[in-house]
Every structure is written in structure tokens, then in C-alpha cells.
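FORM 7B: Structural annotation worksheet

SECTION A. Query
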Amino acid sequence: MFDSFPHGVSERLDRPTYHADFWRVRASGIRHMNKLERGQEFKERGFASWEAFAAGEWDRALSLVREKREGYERQFREAARLGILERRLRVVEFPVTPYVQWELHVLRMRVELGDHIKVLDARKISDIEQDRPVPEVVILGEVAMYEVVYDDGNAAGANRFTDPALIRETSAGFEALYERGDDFHDFFDREIAPLAPPVVE
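SECTION B. Predicted structure
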């Protein structure tokens, strides 16, 4: 699983170029988008809810999650219009990091709006991750795959892959892990809802 990743030939894209390429390919007639999210610490500057979370204002952070609702609704309507099935698999380590605790509240709203998200306990894939973590990737049909690159927790761009064999192999790995993932609400209610507000250092 993921044996060939990331050994294929790739093109490094800076953040604006990655976003432009992503939206171009997404609108080109693909039928599915799969995202595998593995990192446990990210920064989402410019998102008021994350800014409040980073400042230690937990209640305010949760109340501000709703500011993304309209944008997410537009995204899902557009995906439906294009006939794209969008899925995300969120790998979670234990103990849950403050960032992931916050992010899962954001993802809960996305699920409530119709997003297809599962959660996978990282302990369940320790056998797969003996040499390295599973990749942080976005796969657009059979056309393009992006390994998202970060700089100090900030999205800095992506490595773009177009080799069909590599995309198929990575997609098969995603499918296998997605099948092993927990229903989002089941995981959230069991592991996230009981947590006390996180301490942000």
C-alpha cells in the first residue's frame, strides 16, 4: 500500500499555482476527489475560527466555525453540479492534538452539509506506517494527484503527479483505508465530544 509513493516524477507548485491547477482539473470532468489528511498540527491563518482557537478562545472558535457554512454549501452544490463525489479520510493520532480537536468540529459541520468524511485511528495503521506515515494527498480522478507541502504548519504548495499507474496505486491505498475508517459521527461522539477544551501553548 503506497509502495511507490512518492517516487514518481512530480512538478513542484507554489500555493497559488497549486490552487489554480486544482480548481482547473476539478472542473475538467473528473468524477471523484479523494483527500487523505495525515498531519496533526496545521495553521489556518485567515480563518477566524482558527485564529480564535490559536488565541485560546475555545468557545469563540466554535461559534465562528459557522462562518464557513455558506462557502462549504457552495462547494458541495458545485460538486453535485459537476457530478463529483468528494471524500476525505482524516487520520487521527492519540492523544488527540488541540488542532485536530478543533478541526473535527469544523469537519462535523461539513458532514452535516453532506460531505463524505471518515476518521481513522492512526493506531490501526501502525503496521502500514512502520517506515513512513501515509501520504498527505489529494487525488482528482485519474488525472492529477497532489502531495500537499507545508512550511511550519502552513500550506506552501504541492507536488503534482500525473503518472496514471502511481495515481491508481495511491487511489487503491486510499480506498482500502477509507473502508477501514470510522463513521464520522460515531468517532466524534465517542472520542471528541467528551474532551475538555484544549490547552493551546
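SECTION C. Observations
The helical segments are 15-26, 48-54, 58-64, 69-82, 98-112, 164-180, 184-192. Residues 149 and 155 are 6 Å apart (CA to CA).

SECTION D. Sign-off
Analyst initials: ____
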